Amino acid sequence: MTDTPEQQQARMGRQAALVIAGTGVFWILTTLIGGWMGLSNRMLALFDLVALAGFVWAFWMIFQIWRLRQNNQG
User: Fold this and answer.
1) Do the domain assignments include residue 2?
2) Which pTM does this prediction carry?
3) Most CB atoms within 10 A, among 26, 34, 44, 63?
4) Is 34 within the bounds of a domain?
5) Contacts 24+ apart (CB under 8 A), 14-19
6) Domain contains 4
7) What dihedral do alpha carbons 30, 33, 36, 38 form, nearest 10°?
8) Predicted pLDDT at 74
9) What is the rounded CA–CA span in Å between residue 22 and residue 42?
10) How high is the pLDDT of residue 3?
11) Sequential pLDDT tens for the chain (74 residues)
12) How many domains does the chain have?
């Protein structure tokens, strides 16, 4: 069964939302737990970079959804 373009956009939107929410929770938890455990600033910066990569990936997913909507309109 093939998804309609609207269903595909909705699925991609849910995935992007989950990536954003998961990355945010990951970032907050690693910052809190890392500070509590006394991790070095270098290790905390690594977690920050991982979170940044997650947010960039989510932005890329949103951009793809936008492009898909533009292609479906024309």
Assistant:
1) no
2) 0.86
3) 34
4) yes
5) 15/61, 16/58, 16/61, 16/62, 16/65, 19/54, 19/57, 19/58, 19/61
6) no
7) -50
8) 63
9) 22
10) 79
11) 577 888 889 999 999 999 999 999 999 999 999 999 999 999 999 999 999 999 999 999 999 999 988 887 76
12) 1
In which element (H, E) is residue 26 found? helix 5-37
The residue type found at 28 is I
Tokens at 54, concatenated: 């997650």
Q: What is the rounded distance in angstroms from the CA atom of residue 46 to the CA atom of residue 12?
A: 28
Q: Which domain holds residue 24?
A: 10-73
Residue 67 belongs to some domain of the structure: yes
What's the token pair of residue 42? 């270098």
Question: Quick one: CA torsion of 32, 36, 38, 44, rounded to 10 degrees?
Answer: -10
The set of residues, in sequence order, having a beta carbon less than 8 Å from that of 23 and lying 6+ positions away, is: 51, 54, 55, 58
Q: For residue 34, which amino acid is it? A: G
Tokens of 3: 């998804």
